[in-house]
Task: inverse folding
């Protein structure tokens, strides 16, 4: 993409609505735009990052036998009455009526819809187990939306639901999803801690959150210094010893990047979803639920991976692989740009008539992993300058070897 032909406008000053570093950098870098409290447009650069994250999530969900599908955002009141959540959801539902005076909610989650779908299609143990997932926009009527993409009213989410014949089978699958989640975060450049969590309005006998430790986090968690035990402070208010091993406890701020639930037969019993087991007995289906907020994950990456100049995207989710800058050498740079494109290398080409200072500042702000600069100085040696975003040193590379250098 040539910047001169793109929808592109960066900002030098910190936006007044930026409450944290991720909001500041994503707004300044032309990744998102705020429409109202808790409501954001995802701009072309941001959408490329979102698509990279989605690809990682899809690959890991498919690896644990997930099947992607899509459910409607509009959900009828009748389903929510079955689970007694129409008037008891927290935050409360966005509700509306159609022209026939029929009531709906714009879905914050999809337990009711998927259970209704499954009860018409599953009758025997032979139909189990399976997992379905979607990546879809959710709507939550938050009282106070803060932290940019970390707490919003409209957001993209990966939500998955698994269905099982017994608890043992479910618990084994739950562990597989935990491992898949850890792979997702690692591939996104993050380390996430599994913690005990409060199940909230989703429910279930137990749930776990995945937390990224950062001093700017909105959650507080307890961590054991001697074992892997950890819990959200909402679950255990005041403790000084680990309940698992007796070790010393410390507190840490963190950002939640995922939440998974052992729903058990909670929704199955409320909505009458049963199957016939091998002995001919009728039993409720055992369920699990697994969520990741996509925009929140993007913002968390920025919260963790940044410096005083801007974002430092991991290669796996960066909007482009290369940021090409031309300094009064448009013909040579244009030729190199085409070579990079032909080689399948995602390239953002700054071909604007701007100063070197403006172009370098924008490159640091946007945070693409590699910056290539073509200037009169480099051309004299038939070379270009290559710099990695997270390093200070520069490397001179011959023009004819640039593609191979980037690919290796």
Result:
């Amino acid at each position: 993409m040539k910047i001169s032909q793109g929808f592109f406008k960066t900002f030098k000053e910190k936006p007044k609505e930026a409450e944290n570093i991720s909001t500041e950098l994503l707004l300044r870098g032309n990744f998102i735009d705020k429409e109202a409290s808790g409501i954001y447009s995802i701009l072309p650069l941001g959408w490329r990052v979102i698509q990279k994250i989605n690809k990682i999530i899809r690959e890991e969900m498919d690896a644990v036998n997930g099947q992607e599908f899509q459910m409607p955002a509009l959900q009828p009141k009748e389903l929510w009455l079955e689970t007694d959540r129409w008037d008891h959801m927290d935050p409360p539902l966005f509700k509306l009526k159609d022209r026939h005076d029929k009531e709906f909610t714009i879905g914050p989650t999809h337990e009711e819809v998927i259970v209704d779908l499954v009860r018409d299609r599953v009758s025997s143990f032979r139909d189990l187990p399976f997992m379905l997932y979607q990546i879809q926009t959710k709507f939550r009527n938050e009282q106070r939306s803060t932290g940019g993409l970390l707490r919003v009213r409209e957001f993209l989410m990966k939500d998955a639901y698994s269905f099982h014949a017994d608890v043992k089978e479910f618990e084994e699958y739950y562990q597989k999803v935990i491992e898949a989640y850890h792979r997702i975060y690692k591939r996104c450049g993050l380390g996430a801690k599994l913690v005990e969590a409060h199940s909230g309005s989703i429910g279930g006998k137990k749930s776990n959150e995945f937390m990224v430790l950062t001093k700017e986090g909105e959650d507080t968690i307890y961590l054991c210094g001697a074992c892997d035990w950890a819990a959200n402070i909402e679950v255990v208010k005041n403790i000084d010893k680990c309940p698992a091993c007796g070790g010393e406890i410390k507190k840490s701020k963190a950002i939640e990047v995922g939440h998974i639930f052992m729903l058990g037969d909670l929704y199955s019993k409320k909505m009458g979803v049963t199957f016939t087991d091998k002995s001919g007995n009728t039993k409720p289906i055992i369920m699990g639920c697994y969520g990741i907020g996509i925009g929140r994950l993007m913002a968390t990456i920025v919260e963790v991976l940044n410096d005083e100049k801007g974002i430092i995207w991991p290669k796996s989710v960066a909007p482009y692989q290369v940021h090409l800058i031309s300094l009064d050498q448009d013909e040579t740079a244009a030729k190199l740009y085409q070579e990079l494109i032909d080689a399948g290398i995602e390239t953002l080409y700054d071909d604007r008539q701007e100063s070197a200072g403006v172009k370098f500042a924008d490159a640091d702000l946007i945070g693409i992993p590699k910056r290539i600069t073509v200037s009169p100085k480099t051309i004299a040696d038939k070379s270009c300058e290559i710099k990695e975003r997270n390093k200070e040193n520069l490397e001179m590379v011959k023009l004819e070897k640039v593609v191979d250098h980037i690919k290796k």
Remarks:
- The domain at 320-407 is CATH 3.40.50.800 (Rossmann fold).
- The chain has two domains: 9-307, 320-407.
